[in-house]
Each structure stands twice: as C-alpha cells, then as structure tokens.
Amino acid sequence: MNIPLPSQHQAKEKSPAAYTRKIGSCMTYRSDIVWIDITDKSQDILTLIKTHKDIEYFPVCASKIDAVIGIAGARDYLQSRLETPPPNLQKILTKPLFIPESQTIEHTLELLNEHKANAACVIDEYGGIEGFVTKNGLLNSLFNRSVQTTSNTERQTATQADGSIIVNAQMSLDEVQALQLLEDMERSPAEEYYTLAGYLLAHFDAIPQPGDSIDTGSYICTVLSMNGQRIDQVAIKKKN
C-alpha cells in the first residue's frame, strides 16, 4: 500500500519555522550523494539502484560529482529497460536544477514546482556541488521534523585526545552549534553562507590550506583537510 506524501501546504502548517530555514539543513551532504557516471554500464546502474532502493533520484555526472549533466529517476530508468531497444542513459535524463545553499526551503520548493523538477543540486559560493535534495525528501523532512534525531549530525564528528572535535565542514552552522560548539559565534542575517565551510571561507583571506586556523573568540578552528578548493574536515577546540 502506498502511503500518501504530505503536501506542501501540510508541511508548512506542520512546521512553519522550519519552512524558512536554509536548504542546507535538509540536503544530502556531498560526501553522502550516490551518483551515476554517464559512462557506467547498464548492469552497474541496475545494481546501484537495487542497492539503494530508498533513493528516488540520482545525479548523473561526467567523471566527477561537480560535473552534473542531468538527473535520472530510478523508476524512469527501470521502465526504460523494458523498451526494445532500451534507450541510452542520456535519453531519460532531466535537466539539472542548481540551487544556492543560502536558499530557503520554501523558495527551493517553489523553484522545484516552477521548473517541474523532482530534485536539485545544492551549490556553494564557488559553484561546486554542496548537496542534493528531492521534493519528496524536503516535504517528508519538514512534516516529520518533530521526530528527527541528531544521529546524522553525530556520525559526522569525532573527538580527539586533546579535546578537539573533528567535524565535517559541510555541516550546517545550526548543526555545529547543536553540538554546543561555536555557540559564541556572531551571525548576521545578511550573511550568505550556511555551512561551517562557508563561514570559514568568509573569514580566511584566501583559500585555506591544511593547518590554517582562525580564532572565533572562544574556539580555534583548524582546517585538517581539503578537497580541491573545498574545506573537508575541521578541528574545533575550545580555548582554555
């Protein structure tokens, strides 16, 4: 039996405050995105879809996650395999929609409706892929927000012997502060960043290197690793 998804109106009534949050609070993080390479063989794609039965839509990329060329629906792909001859992957792709991480959930849903899209890629200030969202995922996330746990946040952290906390730089600032870190950080409504990486990039004079750090007042944030021009992991340590 199919369980009906909540409507956009129901989701807004259920959680009006969450509706105006930035899209980063509901996206699948870059490191967790399951994507298809345009050169993948049909059997490999079928195996991927079977392995990830809970995923409705997949970004299709040219060799790397930042080169998204389209979105493939799992159901669309499976149905295309029944045709004779089956069309190639390119034929079933929908045009990718790119949304800045600073966008609100409300406006993201409006854009998805406007473009008749079911999924979108979330991009950072440099145009790199920050995350991935689906329309159904956003609505369900809003509707069920009251029963969500912090397990997703906790699995992105690790505590070191010196007391510093290693975090995924793609975490939202709200998630970081929910861990009782950087609680004294000053934030302005006009600021365009939403993630910890965005905050750090806004305060470095140039693209940082591993080992670079900033003093937030009560904490020292040290970049541990980079992925190209993207900050990957950060150590946050409270000052004595």
TrEMBL record:
One of its GO terms (molecular function) is flavin adenine dinucleotide binding. The keyword Repeat applies. Pfam families: CBS, CorC_HlyC. InterPro entries: CBS_dom (IPR000644), CBS_dom_sf (IPR046342), FAD-bd_PCMH-like_sf (IPR036318), FAD-bd_PCMH_sub2 (IPR016169), Ion_transp-like_CBS (IPR044751), Transptr-assoc_dom (IPR005170). Residues 92-149 form the CBS domain. The keyword Repeat applies. One of its GO terms (cellular component) is plasma membrane. PROSITE patterns: CBS (PS51371). Keywords: CBS domain, Repeat. This is CBS domain protein. The lineage of its organism: Bacteria, Pseudomonadati, Spirochaetota, Spirochaetia, Spirochaetales.
